[in-house]
TrEMBL record:
Enzyme Commission numbers on file: 3.1.1.-
Protein name: Carboxylic ester hydrolase
Protein species of origin: Aureobasidium melanogenum (strain CBS 110374) (Aureobasidium pullulans var. melanogenum)
Stretch forming the signal peptide: 1-20
GO molecular function: feruloyl esterase activity; metal ion binding
Keywords linked to the UniProt accession: Calcium, Disulfide bond, Hydrolase, Metal-binding, Serine esterase, Signal
Family the UniProt entry places it in: Belongs to the tannase family.
Pfam family, one: Tannase
């Protein structure tokens, strides 16, 4: 690996005359500027459990069976900006830095995703984004512009800068390469960071990004309102979502050429919802009335408002089994991720209710963009491209939280902005759809799609001790290893093989593997052999 003279000189300057930095609070503190305070530093022998510090309501799950490492937590006060971050510094360092992301409005250090990164021997960092909260709670943002800016981008950038300084000082060596991996809000954080600070990361893996947050959040309330109030004749009860999903499966599964419980081309399916209409012959608990079919029509339609303004794309066919998140669980309200944004990010106040929603909410969100969080500076990605950065973006086709079409739209906006300037998108940005995957991870048991490729949150969604892709630790099956090959060896991924294990334990038998294709290519089965083997598929 090449280390430039300039980088070596920078390290020499940083470490000259200073005593070696060790894993204790005072020693680590000596490597920091005064804005940063080391809260604790604790060396963990191999196979340890890291006990999550009290008060971390966002990420309470303790990772287990860790590699030997120094665990550090840091608090930062930088003018009006306040945030913290956690850092694992492995004994057996791979010379590289990884930052991981957060989810929803979560305020807390994501130690569980950090642990998955530690399994590759990265020095790995997560920021708390500047506040304490669960992922669906936005109250902290009320009339608090500084907390919003920290959440929007400041905490990620500042944490990255400081964690890199600490990493360099601890090892007395430069960082060879820096990576980022996050999903949902984590996907947004990665995109926003490289739009503002193209030098922060050499490679960014962004899953199901909440990039268009100032439209996504209002849409969350809008789409929820289609199915409310729950006493209305047009309300579709949660119990009917699997019924709708089964009918979509019946009509759309074969549209990709193979009937295999995986819908991989939902837009090629000419779905006829009238097959669900209640008639005297129907099973009354497995059909929809005309007003309910009207609601279904709304759910499958883009949100377009005044003057034909496109606000947000619709949920895709095949996402029905995750609809309980946005379309009514047991409450009579849209999801908090929409309502809290309007109440506390747009400062309409706690009295605001979803019945008050109108296009003015979208206009205000457009004008204010709370926290400067929306990752829509497509043009800025040319700076990331120019300095050699690589971006890998993916989205599950069965996502019921962030409409899959918002990622397709992101791809087209980046294309429309950069292609006219002569930028070859494939040279630095590649997008992959994941048939049958829900939001960031998982697949319904009636679908059983290959969904695991070591994307952000995936290891943590099945276990407290998994890292990477067990049994398939290579760049063909592991998106982070694929990114490393792209950045370090110039080997760009054309497909990623996703894996589905029996029972999702990552230890049972492999049930299915299948390549995910680089957009706009689609999966095509060869027509010969076992559809559950990746080798019988290609991307065309
Ligand atoms: C790791 O710790 C667990 C208990 O937490 C123990 O059962 C196991 O034997 C240990 N493994 C190794 C390799 O030390
Ligand atoms: C978050 O919680 C921690 C632990 O309880 C506390 O020390 C810290 O002050 C809190 N931060 C904010 C911004 O409220
Ligand atoms: C501190 O704040 C300054 C001014 O806003 C900003 O430029 C800098 O990136 C911040 N640094 C960190 C480490 O947060
Ligand atoms: C009617 O539909 C419900 C819900 O899908 C199902 O549980 C039940 O078995 C069906 N009844 C008959 C008689 O098919
Ligand atoms: C819609 O278009 C009309 C005519 O161009 C314009 O006067 C009006 O302000 C627009 N409304 C909104 C909400 O943008
Ligand atoms: C409607 O919402 C109310 C309030 O949350 C709840 O108590 C009730 O069970 C819901 N009814 C249905 C049919 O879901
Ligand atoms: C918001 O981001 C833009 C770049 O996208 C930048 O020009 C502007 O200064 C930022 N505003 C704040 C308040 O951080
Ligand atoms: C999967 O789980 C089921 C029960 O949840 C169990 O009966 C079955 O043996 C498991 N399969 C494997 C391969 O472990």
């Amino acid at each position: 690996m090449k280390i430039t003279q300039a980088r070596l000189a920078a390290v020499a300057a940083l470490t000259s005359g200073a005593a070696a930095i060790t894993c204790d609070k005072a020693s680590l503190q000596s490597a920091f500027p005064s804005i940063a305070t080391v809260d604790f530093a604790q060396w963990m022998p191999a196979n340890s459990t890291f006990s999550i510090p009290k008060g971390n309501v966002a990420y309470p799950t303790s990772p287990t069976k860790l590699r030997a490492a120094c665990a550090v937590q840091v608090s930062v006060k930088n003018g009006t900006s306040n945030y913290g971050f956690g850092l694992f510094l492995p004994d057996d360092w791979n010379g590289r830095f990884l930052a991981v992301g957060n989810g929803g409005f979560a305020g807390g250090i994501n130690w569980l995703d950090m642990a998955a990164g530690l399994g590759y021997n990265f020095a790995v960092m997560s920021t708390n984004t500047g506040h304490n909260s669960t992922s669906s709670d936005g109250k902290w943002a009320y009339h608090n512009e500084d907390a919003l800016l920290d959440w929007g981008y400041r905490a990620m950038h500042g944490s990255t800068v400081l964690a890199k300084e600490l990493t360099t000082a601890y090892y007395s060596n430069p960082i060879l390469y820096s990576y980022y991996s996050g999903c949902s809000t984590g996907g947004r954080q990665g995109l926003r960071d490289i739009q503002l600070y193209p030098e922060d990361f050499d490679g960014v893996v962004a899953g199901a990004p909440a990039w268009w947050t100032n439209h996504l959040q209002p849409w969350t309330t809008k789409v929820g309102s289609y199915n409310l109030p729950n006493t209305s004749a047009s309300h579709i009860p949660v119990s009917l979502f699997p019924v709708i999903g089964a009918e979509v499966m019946r009509q759309c599964d074969g549209a990709d050429g193979v009937v295999d419980t995986i819908i991989s081309d939902p837009n090629a399916c000419d779905f006829d919802p009238n097959a669900l209409l209640c008639t005297p012959a129907s099973n009354a608990s497995a059909c929809l009335t005309p007003p309910q079919l009207n609601t279904l029509f709304q759910i499958y339609s883009d949100y377009v408002d005044t003057n034909q303004t496109f606000v947000f794309p619709h949920l895709w066919k095949g996402s029905e089994l995750q609809w309980f998140v946005l379309l009514g669980g047991l409450t009579n309200e849209p999801n908090n991720l929409g309502d809290d944004y309007v109440k506390y990010f747009l400062n309409r106040g706690p009295q605001w209710q979803w019945q008050d929603f109108d296009y003015g909410v979208v206009q205000q969100a457009d004008a204010e963009d709370p926290g400067n969080a929306t990752a829509d500076d497509f043009d800025a990605l040319s700076r990331f491209q120019a300095r050699g950065g690589k971006l890998l973006h993916y989205h599950g086709m069965s996502d019921g939280l962030i409409a899959t079409g918002s990622s397709v739209y992101l791809y087209s906006k980046i294309l429309q902005t950069l292609a006219p300037k002569g930028v070859n998108l494939d040279s630095f940005y590649r997008f992959f759809l994941v048939p049958g995957m829900q939001h960031c991870s998982g697949t319904p048991s009636t679908v059983n799609a290959p969904w695991y490729f070591a994307g952000a949150n995936q290891a943590g969604s099945v276990s407290t001790s998994v890292s990477g892709v067990p049994g398939f630790r290579d760049a063909k099956h592991d998106v982070l290893l694929a990114m490393m090959d792209w950045v370090e060896k110039g080997v760009a991924p054309t497909e990623i093989i996703a894996t589905k294990w029996v029972n999702d334990t990552l230890q049972d038998k492999v049930m299915r593997q299948r390549p995910l294709c680089m957009w706009p290519k689609k999966q095509r089965w060869s027509g010969k052999g076992d559809v559950n083997q990746a080798s019988t598929w290609s991307c065309e």
